[in-house]
Amino acid sequence: MPSTGPLKIGDFSVLPISIPPVVTSYPKPITHHLYVRRNTPKVPTPNASRSLFVTNCPIDSTEAHFRTLFASLVGAGRFESITFESRKDYAHKSSPQQLLEAAVPASASRLLQAHSKKRKHSESEDDSAAGLEAILLPQTFTRHLLPSGSSAVILLADASSVEQVLKAIARQYSSKKSIPLIWPSPPQVKPLGAPWLKSHNRLRYPPAHVLQQSVDAFSSLFSQREREAAEIAKRLRSQPDEDGFVTVTRGGRNAPASKNEAEEAKRKMLERESKKKEELANFYRFQLREKKKAEQGELLKRFDEDRKKLEAMRVKRGKFVPET
């Protein structure tokens, strides 16, 4: 039976899918609509011509679901990958780099960041990986659901695959023999429902030895970063800054420097530099004003001289009377 409803809404092609019943309390299939169009990012990318933008994804969507769905729509080998926008944000918020930054003392963060430019990149990556591996606790969910109405970008094999997908969606409406697409249940995807919630409840409470290991690793990494920051501060205290000056505090150059005194000295130096720049800029503006005034006076003087010459020529010539 052909699909009913609008074929397109704006630039989007409408793809209805049938979601089979998952609970016995409501044993009826549900029709869900996907909205698909060509991917047109604001900043063009090399893969934009062979990608699709899809929105209103089901909350339980995974790459395996869309791979199976597109295989039933246009055949296998066309679908390459999919990127969900909400999962990209989640991965960024829970990235290992952000978790590692939490183990760095706030007072030492700036020093370590400046010092990391001089460290070997491989050494820094090895330390980060070793520290995170011991700190991170297991995830509490075996599957993360999407927010309602989420969007994604689907990457296909080539640009012709995009045309084939859009034509296949249109055929869902035109063909009388078309069978509604059924939302798949891939075997490699862990099921939701009661088993999913039971595993979540179990993962929320890790064993005591796992929790203790994570706390010990975090404390060790925190202390290590503090020691590194203290060594860097001690070494930088005797090194000149960008202007070639060494900040000398009470107790001598090698004595522990007060953080407030160092910040106050830096603030005064910046104020002096700002005042010098302002005075220099005002000096140049004063010169420009004087130059413009001199040019204006010179023009007025020439105009007055020309006017006097013209009046003298008129007096000398007298009144001209043409002959009749």
UniProtKB/TrEMBL annotation:
One of its GO terms (cellular component) is UTP-C complex. CDD domains: dRRM_Rrp7p, RRP7_Rrp7p. One of its GO terms (biological process) is ribosomal small subunit assembly. Residues 10-198 form the Rrp7 RRM-like N-terminal domain. Residues 203-322 form the Ribosomal RNA-processing protein 7 C-terminal domain. Residues 243-264 are annotated as: Disordered. Belongs to the RRP7 family. This is Ribosomal RNA-processing protein 7-domain-containing protein.
